[in-house]
Amino acid sequence: MSTLLETIEVSFSYPASQTKALNKLKLRIPEGKKTAICGHNGSGKSTLFLQAIGIHTPSSGQVLWKNKPLTYERKELKQLRQDVGLVFQDPEQQLILNTPYEDVTYGLRNAAVPEPEITRRAEAILLTLGLEHLAHTPIHHLSLGQKKRVALAGVLVLEPKLLLLDEPTAYLDRISEQQLVEELDRIHSRGITLVMATHDMNLAYSWADWILVMDRGQCVMEGTPAEIFKDSKALNSLGLDRPMLLDLWDALPEASRQGVSAPRNVSDFTTLLQKVFA
Ligand SMILES: Nc1ncnc2c1ncn2[C@@H]1O[C@H](COP(=O)(O)OP(=O)(O)OP(=O)(O)O)[C@@H](O)[C@H]1O
Asked: Which membrane topology describes this protein (predicted)?
């Protein structure tokens, strides 16, 4: 499993704060996977993302992109921010222009992409995310879910190799969440490595193929969803819930679970129930 981004013993404190937001953090983001980063409020997930795009620099330790330590030179940071896209939890922090079209084209102009190419790429990404009819609508007229899509479009249009998403489904309704997850799967199938910070253990369990758990600025667990959610006690002590599907799975008669792996989504669970109660 090759590593795209790595932190080696990274520590960082915000100027106004006494506590370390990151405390000798050691973790790796595997290339090509869908990784979920879980952890209670304040465990350091967003701070890690800001380190990954070089907005903050470690007070000690190193951040490595493709096995090379970041030097934080201007040219390198410019390239890094094209390779690593960050979608903030709150789209208001990200959307600075008046309309989705202006916002999506802004990053391309900064990257000195030729004008015909800008138009082509902006129109394509707005279409992909179902935003074409809103391209010239003032952003303050959009719903939160639509703003989240615009923020995602503005990052995706730059064709990053690694996409970091901070709580992308927070405050979305079930249908919008489902649509976003489907879109993320399409993005992943194009070869983009995805990392999602989330509090939603049901989503982490069904969506991710690799999970990192953070606590007090450290990575305290890593593994596949099956490995991570096996240890309910450890998760509880970290303030994280067990996915509902696993509780339901445990409630099934033992004989029906023998030799079958626990379902990762509702549709697999329903199929299993139909077999059990046939
Ligand atoms: N701008 C800031 N100024 C001072 N302290 C901050 C700032 N941003 C974060 N912190 C502190 O750094 C620590 C890590 O915060 P961070 O936002 O990275 O956690 P998180 O895991 O993303 O939390 P959440 O799940 O609530 O988004 C917390 O103790 C937080 O209070």
From this structure: Peripheral membrane protein
